Amino acid sequence: MRPHGSSRLAEDLLKLAQQGARRRDVLRWGIGAGAIALVGCDGDPSTSVGGTPLLVRVDAAGDDGGVTQQCTSLPPEIIGPYPADGSNGVNALNLAGIVRGDIRPSLAGASGIAEGVPLRLTLTVVSSACVAQPGMAIYLWHCDRDGNYSMYSPSVVDENYLRGVQQTDRNGKLTFVSIFPGCYPGRWPHLHLEIYPNVAAAVEGGRSVFISQLAMPEQSCRLAYAAPGYETSATSLNSVALSTDISFSDGADLQIPAIRGTLDNGFDASLTITV
Fold first, then answer.
1. Closest CA to 81 of 162, 25, 12, 137
2. Element (H, E) at 243
3. Mind listing the pLDDT tens digit for each residue in 81-119?
4. Ordered alpha helix ranges (H), the chain
5. How far apart are the C-alpha atoms of 261 and 241, rounded to whole Å?
6. CB of 232 within 8 A of CB of 146?
7. pTM to 2 decimal places
């Protein structure tokens, strides 16, 4: 079992110190090679993939006389202390039924269901050349509306909800059905994700190819936390900020999903990830 609150933040800070502060180089391209433009994968500045604009580098002419485009990678982040991916002794990835779209219920004998405002998250995985990547697996996990992590926090250590794996379709897309994540002291509301080359690698103990976190937009957080059951998260949100978060303080523009919705109907969020 893992501690809650300030102790959990201390663990996050320790992890960050151990892995070293990452540098964000996604905008540091040479001007001589070409220009940087905010465009979609088809070159139209008004388009997007997965509902989120892509920052694309447009290079000089290639060998065939055409121009090339490069989608900007999502910044990597630390995995955090509650992954349940087998790296620290607890493993949700080997549970029967972990490959699923709806991650709100617990599984494999556990019966809890995560209550909260519905969140439907669509992720699109593309290559650096903006080409859809089918067959890749994403493991998604996050805290519940009280800020607790299943399999770790004492009150939900016997649950395994809000964890699941899915495979991208031929368009590089997948959708998770979850709840709007809560907020706890010391961290901005966020989602964790780990990307594997395929489902087999995810569930059989293979090595992930990418780890990051997504930051929830502040306006959406304040709207969601007005719902019953999010009182603790609403209080915690007032004591945190993106600008001081251990993962997002160096800028989170590429890690904030496009999101829309209401308390009655839930939220729809989307983001494109380059691997």
1. 12
2. none
3. 999 999 999 999 999 999 999 999 999 999 999 999 999
4. 6-19, 199-203, 218-224, 231-237
5. 23
6. yes
7. 0.80
